[in-house]
Amino acid sequence: MVKIFHNPNCGTSRNTLALIRNAGVEPEVVLYLETPPSKEQLKKLISDMSMPIRDVLRQKGTPYEELDLANAKWSDDELLDFMMAHPILINRPIVVTPIGTKLCRPSEAVLDILVEPKRGAFTKEDCEVVINEKGLRV
How confident is the model at residue 2 (pLDDT cuts 50, 70, 90)? Predict the structure, then answer.
């Protein structure tokens, strides 16, 4: 079972989803802006990634600056509350597989947590080759 917390408007998220499908897997796609994870789910995802909460906060195209989220005064619990109130603050895509949970930035990071990471050649939307015609990761 593979799950991706996906934003279809994000190129990195689209490329990650395409890499999962290139591995022959049809993941559970969670459109997290429409159906955000619960606070406890998000806390577990972040814990499973072994990342500080601040590393999962998205800055670009979000209310990060206007909410003054760079300020060290905010506790992890408060940052989670901001992410619940504004799911766009959750960096993406987050992928969960039997091997692990990972923030897949860049998109090819997903190959590290897929059981069978590649079936054929793969090129990102921006024409960057990730897997060549011999099936080798570039």
Answer: very high
Tell me, what's the pLDDT at 138?
A: 87
Encode pLDDT of 78-135 as tens digits: 999 999 999 999 999 999 999 999 999 999 999 999 998 888 899 999 999 999 998 8
HEC sequence for the chain: CCEEEECCCCHHHHHHHHHHHHCCCCCEEEECCCCCCCHHHHHHHHHHCCCCHHHHECCCCCCCCCCCCCCCCCCHHHHHHHHHHCHHHECCCEEECCCCEEECCCHHHHHHHCCCCCCCCEECCCCCEEECCCCCEC
Q: Residue 127 catalytic?
A: no
Q: Which CATH class is domain 3-131?
A: alpha beta
Q: From the candidates 4, 5, 6, 10, give the one annotated as an active-site residue.
A: 10
